[in-house]
Amino acid sequence: MTILKTIFNTILDALFPRTTSELESLSYSPEQAWQKLPHAPRPPLPRTDSIFAYKDEKVAKLVWNIKYKKSAKAIAIGGYALRLRLVELIKKHVTSIFQNFVIIPIPITKRRKNERGYNQCELLVNEIERLDIDKKFIICKDLLGRVHHLSRQTLKNREDRLESAKGIFTVNEETRKRIMNEDNQIGNELEIINSENNIDNTIIIVIDDVITTGSTMKEAMETLQNAGFKNVFGLSLAH
Question: What's the whole-number mean pLDDT along residues 114-121?
Fold first, then answer.
């Protein structure tokens, strides 16, 4: 796999030579990127946030290197930025010492993952987990699943994108029960109380690489809300 990846990256480099902006963005340390890359406007969805402005060529190339080249340098920059913003989110929303912050990546279909060999959002979440030495976050990669992939979105307007995104996600019921601490004995009043408290104290944060119109993130968040999670937020590396 490493040899194939090297060959693939060599072909990509030949077909798409690295621009000055790309080389500059990958020359940054994670700390420098946080300071120097332009920050994004707020996405067109409530309860969502993005870090870097995707219209900037350096940011676009950074995301491209994560998504298509699995660049360790780009992933380190992305994971660092996402973790910093997540810490800010905790400070803003923490109301209880029992608060659980569950981080989940936007999933891709099994077919797409087999083709590419990885999910770029999982790579970013892995980096968040590596940096989370204080264990502030609960990483959960199997709560949300993807039923099918979106057709090509480039030429669609926002309304069409929102419509085509409907029904693309599903919730893993066993994982949902585990997070909510549900018990099979419905008549156990104590267990029901504990389950309700766990729902109230659980904040789900969905991680994506890019939010464009917000159709994919909106559908992911609504799927989780329909499954019973009250506090769902979205965060992307770029918008």
Answer: 93
Q: Domain total for the chain?
A: 1
The Cα–Cα gap between 158 and 155 comes to: 10
For 5-49, write each residue's pLDDT tens digit.
556 666 666 666 678 888 899 999 999 999 999 999 888 899 999
Beta bridge partners of 48: 234
187-193 long-range Cβ contacts below 8 angstroms, 24+ apart: none
Three-state DSSP class for residue 4:
helix
End-to-end CA distance of the chain: 31
Closest CA relative to residue 207, chosen from 73, 14, 66, 92: 66
Q: From start to end of 22-66, where are the E strands? A: 48-52
- Residues 131, 124: Cα–Cα separation, whole Å: 11
Rounded Cα distance, 107 and 101, in Å: 18
Q: For tokens 């104590």, what's the residue? A: 190
Q: What is the reported pLDDT for 180?
A: 80
What residues contact 27, with CB distance under 8 A and at least 6 apart? none
200: domain range?
2-238
Its pTM stands at 0.83
Beta bridge partners of residue 170, listed in sequence order? 145
